[in-house]
Amino acid sequence: MRRPARDWLAAHGLLFPLVAANRRFLRRVVRRGTAVCIEGFPRSANSYAFLAFRRWNPGVRVGHHLHSPVQVKRAVSLGVPCAVLIRPPLDVVASVLVMDRGRISDTAAYRSYLQFYTRALPFRERVVVAPFAEVTRDPAAMVERINASFGTSFAAEPMTAAASGELMTRMERTQTERGRAVTSLTVPSDEKERGKAELRERLATHPLLPEAERLYAEWVGGRS
């Protein structure tokens, strides 16, 4: 299914039951017995945050990578500790467009961002907000705030350059083996950075950017 249609359906809860029933995604769905949920819009450090958490907490059941606000709602309703990843809209939309290589429009990407965070916003005070810059700098801070907010005792340690490099190598190897193009990998690359730089000027004048920036500020402005 094309990403705009998939994200719209997921955002409105219409696709979620189908995703939840798919064997490929079943282990990622929050359900009773899930220990923690780490969820966010695509290209918001989802893979890095998840792999760092699992590095420190092997065997722990994690809800992740469905890119749906319904996942956040489920976590809150089931009492599962939840962190919501978020990245500034201009940056994340540019990254999504580079990943999808022209298959979706600027407007569709912005609308998907707005749908995700608008529909997850009612649960803002009951989750840990994990900004992209913080997570990529040191995901241990996210884990520590989960522990402080929910009374959990998940393990975490400062992310060293060597450990971060190991995670990046693992992500690149796994995604390359799946046949992804360089621009679709979640790890940084010069090619991706050039592509994003070319898009930013156009995206900065999009009429949906101010609304997306206000929503981003609402999410991160009151974070402790």
What does this structure look like?
The protein contains 12 helices and 4 strands, in the order αααβαβαβααβααααα. The chain is an alpha/beta fold. Helix 1 packs parallel to helix 7 and helix 5 packs parallel to helix 7. The radius of gyration is 17 Å and the shape is globular. 35% of the residues are buried.
Brief synopsis:
Helix content is 57%, strand content 8%. It contains twelve helices and four strands. The protein has a four-stranded parallel β-sheet with strand order 2-1-3-4, sandwiched between helices.
CATH topology title: Rossmann fold
Strand content: 5-15%
Please provide the ordered H/E string of secondary-structure elements: HHHEHEHEHHEHHHHH
| Rg result | 17 Å
What's the helical proportion of residues?
Answer: 55-70%
Backbone shape: globular
CATH class: Alpha Beta
Topology:
Layout: H1 3-11, H2 16-21, H3 23-26, E1 36-40, H4 46-56, E2 62-64, H5 69-78, E3 82-86, H6 89-100, H7 106-120, E4 128-131, H8 132-137, H9 140-150, H10 161-177, H11 190-203, H12 209-220
